[in-house]
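Form 7-S
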Amino acid sequence: MSQSSWHHTRPYSLADYGWDEACEHAFTPHRAAGLTPARIVRAERGSCEAVTDAGTVRAEVPGTADHGDPSSAPCTGDWAALRAGATGRAPVVHAVLERRTALVRSSSSRTSYGQVLAANVDTVVVAVSLAAPLKHGRTERMLALAWESGARPVVVLTKADACPDPLSAEAQVSGVAAGADVLVTSAATGQGLDALAAVLNGTVVLLGPSGAGKSTLGNRLLGEERLATGAVREADGKGRHTTTWRELLPLPGGGVLLDTPGLRAIGLHDARSGLEQTFAEIEDLAPACRFADCAHAGEPGCAVLAAVEAGEIPRRRLDSYHRLLREDAHSASRTDSRLRAEREATKKDITRHLRATYRFREQRQ
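Output:
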């Protein structure tokens, strides 16, 4: 089957989706093997939609049964090597290039594996609605996820037109988002959208709960109504999940946008580095504590607790730090348990094989 028969349209090139010299270098052995470079723009179970220089193609993803580590499966944002399928068949994802960054949360099934929301992301837009009460703990959680990914987080306060005092809200959120830009926007009035577009870079992912205005914001950035939007309950500011999958869409000014479904729960998965960046003021004070292993939970000579007593760090902030650290440690313990179980399973398989070999030899003697 010829490669030209895979494709439907050719509105964009791989360069529009972020292909650069680093990607070309990483792809060198695959190109030598006659494979085709592609970026996965939408991933589903057993298949995906990918863009190539010749257009968009539906490709098969082998080995996607419900076993093994799901985080290793191709996901939206991955760069892939496609192999031509047999006659009458779709091409196949032969390999996935090493991910430069990855946005990973704890699996919704609460297994020890993480769920990759997006790969090779440059900017994570953490959407926070100003039409509902601010929940700083949730913002800190999303920031930890964003920092851990290796991408640059930008906190975008949406629906400023529905907030009586957006400047006060901006000041509050800036207090929990050290190191990240905090922008006040309104898709209804256009406020802050030019400033937002100016700070976005490369592959941009929208992250936030349902009702945060991600899809509406995305449509303004895209310049057209490409993403489905829905109504929000006035009582609590929550919305329905109008985005049900993750899909890459080119932005008119360059780069690509990825809208994610509204996440009811964003569990941390191996995010210690992200937590350290999210709570940088606590980590910066830690070396001044009397004990090197101070947990900032009542030890004498604790510099962090002294800062809390002096009003320099809010008690809520320290409580959130402790809560998220415990959650991340629990996630890590599940992973360690899984690894131990896998090692034990491997040992048992080897033992069974050896016993079977010995029995076979004894029978032949």
